[in-house]
Design a protein that fits this description.
about 240 residues, alpha+beta, 3-stranded mixed beta sheet, globular, disordered N terminus
């Protein structure tokens, strides 16, 4: 055999071996792919087992209503870190303020006296003295009822003070009464020796009139309660 023929033979043999190796490699690669495709899927991650269908969570995995961050928990509305009840504090403050305000005067703690004065003519001075232990507020004016009168006399609006008259224990308020017309122009006059003055709480003070009583007619008028005697007699 010639040298040229021998080379061709060796080249053919080498080529045949290479092709066989390539074919074997291709077969093994195909078998490996099939094996991987038929293998069962790996188990799901541990975290996936805690999820419900539709994305929900298993009970106990979320924040509970009564947990540490729940409604009644330590950081909740009613928990140890909740806000203080500001409403109750405000209510207590308002109640304390209301209790400090003077109450209305009553016949039980105010004594009213009547004094007839020489000037102005036909005038009567009413003095309301607080005999109690607390300051109280007098009614706007004395709804004086002389004798058997069915109506109380009108009040002189010009004497209205800026605020109600309060009297401290031992102190007095004053009101003036025009008993009759000084020029005799009054009508339906009569004499009486009784006088009553009601209070806003329903109690009634019986006031002693000067000896011999007083004469009243249609000019009968009262002033508002004042803190000053001169203001009461200035009408």
């Amino acid at each position: 055999m010639s040298t040229r023929t021998a080379r061709r033979t060796r080249l053919f043999a080498a080529t045949t071996v290479a092709l066989a190796a390539l074919a074997l490699t291709a077969c093994e690669s195909g078998d490996s792919s099939d094996t991987g495709a038929s293998a069962p899927p790996s188990s799901a991650p541990a975290g996936a087992q805690s999820e419900r269908p539709g994305g929900g969570e298993e009970p106990g995995s979320g924040t509970e209503a009564n947990g540490s961050k729940g409604t009644n928990g330590s950081a909740g509305t009613n928990g140890s870190a909740g806000k203080p009840d500001e409403g109750s504090a405000t209510g207590e403050s308002n109640a304390a303020s209301d209790s400090d305000l003077p109450g209305k005067c009553s016949a039980a703690d105010v004594k009213i006296t009547a004094t007839k004065v020489t000037r102005p003519l036909n005038h009567l001075l009413l003095t309301a003295t607080n005999t109690g232990s607390k300051t109280c507020m007098l009614p706007p004016y004395p709804a004086a009822r002389f004798g058997e009168a069915q109506a109380v006399p009108p009040v002189a609006e010009a004497t209205k003070p800026q605020s109600l008259t309060g009297v401290e224990p031992g102190k007095s308020g004053y009101a003036g009464v025009v008993l009759s017309a000084g020029d005799g122009s009054g009508e339906n006059g009569y004499e009486t020796d009784t006088l009553t003055v009601p209070f806003e709480d329903g109690s009634i003070a019986t006031v002693a009139l000067p000896a011999g009583g007083v004469y009243v007619d249609s000019a009968l008028t009262v002033t508002y309660w004042q803190t000053d005697m001169d203001a009461a007699l200035g009408h």
